[in-house]
Amino acid sequence: MTFDPKWGGPGKVKFEKLDDWIKRPEEGIRLYSGTAIYRKTFTLTGEPSSRAPFYLSLGSVKYTARVKLNGKDMGIVWTAPWRLEITSALKAGANELEIEVINLWPNRRIGDASLPVEKRFTQSNIAFSPINPVNPPERSGLYTSGLLGPVLIQSTAADGAK
User: Fold this and answer.
1) 20 to 30 A from 25, CA-CA: which of 1, 47, 133, 145?
2) What is the pTM of this model?
3) Among residues 61, 56, 34, which one has the least CA distance to residue 44?
4) Which residues contact 48 (CB under 8 A, 6 or more apart)?
5) C-alpha distance across the termini of the chain, in Å
6) How far apart are CA 40 and CA 109, in angstroms?
7) What is the rounded distance in angstroms from the CA atom of residue 93 to the CA atom of residue 153?
8) How far apart are CA 147 and CA 88, in angstroms?
């Protein structure tokens, strides 16, 4: 996956499993705010049925995700059930999945609070305050971020069975 270095991200990294960014050891991921891109190639055996739609379920996302399958934009999700129909782009054989996940701004603001002004990525006239939930006062207030999964391909037959 890729985290934008312009916003303090480490560039390309490999996640062995889906994980909350704030639990990662890399400060550039833990304190990251912005868009990160997950990429995965998977193989579909057999032809997708034209009778039953296929869906990509993202499980849980913090906070917004755009899905592309085989280069086709499948749409954006920002709330449960974190699911998109992918029938029109799904094909037999290799499929290229790209998921852009965008988290919230406070994690970067918290990281910036410990940096000298000239090294900060963000600027604001809003000070951190214990009573302001948009600006948590310390690192323990980091917001869960990323694609948490599980990511599944689901098919619903015409009779409603899965």
Assistant:
1) 133
2) 0.86
3) 56
4) 54, 87, 90, 91, 92
5) 30
6) 30
7) 14
8) 23
pLDDT of 87: 94
Q: pLDDT tens across 128-158, in order?
A: 554 455 544 444 589 999 999 999 999 875 4
Q: How would DSSP label each residue in the chain?
A: -EE-GGGT--EE---SS---GGGSS-HHHHT--SEEEEEEEEEE-SPPPSSS-EEEE---EESEEEEEETTEEEEEE-STT-EEE-TTT--SEEEEEEEEEE--THHHHHHHHTS-GGG-S---SPPP-TT-TTS-SSGGGPPP-EE-S--EEEE--TTS--
Q: What residue segments make up the domains of the chain, in order of their start?
A: 2-155
CATH of domain 2-155: 2.60.120
Strands 54-57 and 64-69 turn out to be unpaired
Q: Environment class of residue 94 by beta-carbon count within 10 Å: exposed (0-12), middle (13-18) or buried (19+)?
A: exposed
Average pLDDT rounded to a whole number, residues 68-76:
98
